[in-house]
Every structure is written in C-alpha cells, then in structure tokens.
Amino acid sequence: MEKQLKDLIVEFVSDDSLRKVLSEYVKVCSRRELLAMLKGLIGLNDK
User: Fold this and answer.
1) Which of 6, 8, 29, 44 could hold 33 in an S-S bridge, CB 3.0 to 4.6 Å?
2) What's the gap between Cα 22 and its chain centre?
3) Domain coordinates in residue numbering, the chain
4) Are 45 and 39 in contact (CB under 8 A)?
C-alpha cells in the first residue's frame, strides 16, 4: 500500500519539495487521511 501511494505521489506531484513532504506524510498518517488528501490533490472528488 505504501509503495503504491509513493508511486502515485511521484506520478502526480511534479514539485520536488512537495513530493518530499508527501512522502514523509505517508509514513505517519492514517491510510484514510492520506487517501482523502490525495483525492483532493488530484481532483478525484470534484463536486
């Protein structure tokens, strides 16, 4: 799961510093929080 999330981050986040922050966040946050954040980041939950 963590590897998939890191791959997603690399794929969707072009900014290196933001990518580092997100990679650190992957290690400490809950899966649900991270998925919600990633969905928001890549616009999957547009209303």
Assistant:
1) 29
2) 6
3) 2-42
4) yes
Amino acid at 4: Q
Q: Which two tokens stand for residue 34?
A: 């991270």
Q: Using CA atoms, how far apart are residues 1 and 32, in angstroms rounded to an integer? A: 12
Answer yes or no: are the C-beta atoms of 6 and 23 closer than 8 Å: yes
Q: Can you read off the two tokens belonging to residue 39?
A: 């969905």
H helix intervals, the chain: 2-12, 16-28, 31-42
Q: What are the structure tokens assigned to 30, written together?
A: 């809950």
pLDDT, tens digit (0-9, with 9 covering 90-100), for 7-41 = 777 777 777 887 777 777 777 777 777 778 778 87
Query: Which CA distances in Å does 20 have to 13, 23, 25, 46?
Result: 10, 5, 9, 25
Quick one: tokens of 44? 């999957």
